[in-house]
From TrEMBL:
The lineage of its organism: Bacteria, Pseudomonadati, Pseudomonadota, Gammaproteobacteria, Pseudomonadales. This is Membrane protein. One of its GO terms (cellular component) is plasma membrane. GO terms for molecular function: L-lysine efflux transmembrane transporter activity. It holds the Pfam family Lys_export. The chain crosses the membrane at residues 6-23, 35-55, 61-84, 105-130, 136-155, 167-186, 206-228, 235-257, 277-301.
Length: 303
């Protein structure tokens, strides 16, 4: 029962326990993580492409993804609105961001999707069933989580300082609690055990991890659902952040989930000002840490 959780949590915590001061090594780790992410996402697509009844599965996945995205959007925004009402966050004057910057971010957001599609097409049209694909994917996932743990530990962030940032902590807790409530509401319609549904809603926008972890535990179809759900969260966040951050900063920053500390951070900074940066980093870091922990624990409950 605990094997699944340990499989995810052990390398993550091992990496987080190690401290590195060599900047060149951290650069190598950064590029290795990027390569591993695309490699494992391509394997996820490969598994999708070689499923029986792929067309019917894709139609079913579209409905499941739409339901997940809309339910989580409503639940997270309500939770973050309550967070904003409880403790409003002041923000500075924003800096201007050109349309080219947003266009570049949107295009970058398509890259992981392209990796999955490339794997899907290769699996469907070109490649025969390959031996040991699951073992290779699991080994790559373990290495990825170890390196991600190293990155989190050596990002120059103090966990204590992040935890005392009350705005970031409040947003992270609001997203976590509202996502789990949304998962409980989705249980009757997703036809999965409660712990698997809660694992699905615990990605918090970290698509490169949720798709891999869920796919490894529940199969490529549910891995694809988890991946698309979190990719769409990031795309929606990029669209809504500039619109609502001035009036509802908690909703704008918090909905970005784990991406608030990296991918959506430039939009948050340009739209909301410098005061939003430490809050976004705190919220994104805490959700990045909670995501694999919650997914590992919930998936482990399934045996």
């Amino acid at each position: 029962m605990l094997t699944g959780a340990l499989l995810i949590l052990a390398p993550l915590f091992l990496g987080f326990a190690l401290s590195l001061s060599n900047r060149r090594a951290m650069t190598v780790i950064h590029h290795t993580v990027e390569v591993l992410v695309y490699f494992i996402l391509a394997l996820l697509g490969l598994g999708l492409g070689q499923m029986e009844g792929l067309v019917d599965q894709l139609a079913n996945m579209a409905g499941q993804v739409g339901l997940l995205v809309m339910t989580l959007l409503a639940a997270n925004m309500l939770g973050l609105w309550l967070c904003h009402r409880w403790d409003p966050m002041p923000i500075d004057e924003p800096t201007e961001a050109g349309p080219a910057g947003y266009r570049r971010l949107f295009l970058a957001g398509l890259k992981p999707l392209m990796a999955v599609v490339a794997g899907l097409l290769a699996g469907f049209f070109l490649l025969p069933a390959l031996p040991m694909v699951d073992q290779v994917a699991t080994g790559a996932l373990m290495l990825l989580l170890f390196l991600i743990g190293l990155q989190l530990r050596n990002a120059g962030l103090s966990l204590r300082r992040l935890l005392v940032n009350r705005f970031g902590l409040g947003m992270a807790l609001a997203v976590t609690a509202s996502s789990l409530v949304a998962g409980l509401l989705l249980m009757p319609v997703l036809d999965l055990p409660w712990h698997d549904v809660l694992a699905l809603v615990s990605g918090f926008g970290w698509y490169s991890l949720s798709g891999i972890v869920v796919g490894d535990a529940l199969g490529p179809a549910w891995g694809g659902v988890a991946f698309l759900n979190d990719v769409l969260r990031e795309i929606i966040a990029l669209a809504v952040i500039p619109v609502i951050i001035r009036s509802r900063p908690a909703m704008a920053i918090g909905y970005g989930g784990a991406t608030a500390m990296d991918f959506t951070l430039p939009v948050i900074k340009n739209s909301g000002g410098l005061a939003c940066v430490p809050v976004a980093i705190a919220s994104g870091f805490l959700l990045s840490f909670l995501s694999p922990v919650l997914m590992g624990v919930f998936l482990a409950l399934g045996g």
